[in-house]
Amino acid sequence: MVIVKKDRGMAASLQKAIRKYGFFSLYDGLSAQLVRQLTYTSLRFHLYEVGKDQMDDPIDFLDKVFVAALAGCVAGVVGIPMELVNTRMQVNRALPKEKRWNYRNLFDGLYRVTRDEGWTKLYSGCHLSFLRSSLITVGQNAAYDQAKEIYMEIFKMKHDNTLLHLISSATAACMCGPIIKPIENLRTLKMVHSRGFYKAFAYMMRFGLRGPFRGMVPYLLRMVPNTVVTFLSFEQLRVHFGYYEIDDS
After folding, report:
1. CATH superfamily, region 16-239
2. Which of the two ends of the chain, N or C, has the fewest CB atoms closer than 10 A to its terminal CB?
3. For residue 186, how many other CB atoms are within 10 A of its CB?
4. Which residues fall within 8 angstroms of residue 212, CB to CB, at 6 or more apart?
5. What is the pLDDT of residue 5?
6. What are the CB-based long-range contacts (under 8 Å, 24+) for 114-119?
């Protein structure tokens, strides 16, 4: 939806993709997405938690924002090459045949980008990617922790309450989506077409003020469940395996 010139909605885009290329075309870029989640996302969470441990108690919201932004930026160094390949694999079928990359998987994509375009191309649109990575860590991790504290105080919930984790993660996801989407769209255009910033911005604005938020509905349909499942899993692991008893003796 971000790349194509036609003003086609989510339902029409899904219908066309399935009818023309089959159901499994919806999973283009899966290998890149999985490896990216296993590395970049895990590192982002780890760095944020380690950063919080280094801050003096109590940690206020600005401290969380600073730690989250730094953690996201550092993790972005690992994640950007995989984001590039993932983005290109997802939009590949929407391009004219002569402009398609046809990467077989993540590793084929990384190899061919390095061989044909140089390793620096792996960091195409890196400034936008670093910004996105920082903001998404703020919008997810820091916002989740802050929402969790607020809900604990308002509803008198304990920190290991599953309902608390559910509503806090849903809140973080809904806050994160509108903040990230314009940067996400601009970054996608930079990674796919390698056009200058102003040309990419002009292309993004082809639908007017809707341009920066193009694809918001499918983005939220992905972001909300993804964030909720991630934090629910994280909290369950933390509650059951994240503590140890200290022997007073």
Report:
1. Mitochondrial carrier domain (1.50.40.10)
2. C
3. 22
4. 181, 182, 185, 186, 204, 205
5. 86
6. none
Domain regions of the chain by residue span: 16-239
| Selection from 127, 51, 39, 45 nearest residue 86 by Cα | 39
Virtual torsion, Cα 155, 156, 160, 165, nearest 10 deg? 20
For residue 200, give the amino acid letter. Answer: A
Neighbours of 15 (CB within 10 A): 12
- Residues for the chain: how many in total? 249
Residue 12 in tokens: 């029409």
Answer for the pair 152, 158: CB distance below 8 angstroms, yes or no: yes
Residue 59: how many other CB atoms lie within 10 Å = 18
CA proximity to 176, closest of 14, 58, 68, 52:
68
Q: Is the dihedral of CA 192, 198, 204, 206 positive or negative?
A: negative
- Between CA 21 and CA 23, with CA 22 as vertex, the angle to 5 degrees is 135
CB 157 within 8 A of CB 151: yes
Residue range 201-233, pLDDT digits in tens: 999 999 898 999 999 999 999 999 999 999 999
How far apart are alpha carbons 207 and 213 in whole angstroms?
A: 10
- Determine the straight-line distance between the first and last CA of the chain, rounded to whole angstroms: 63
Q: What is the pTM of this model?
A: 0.85
Q: State yes or no: cis peptide before 58, omega within 30 of 0.
A: yes
Q: What is the DSSP letter of 158?
A: -
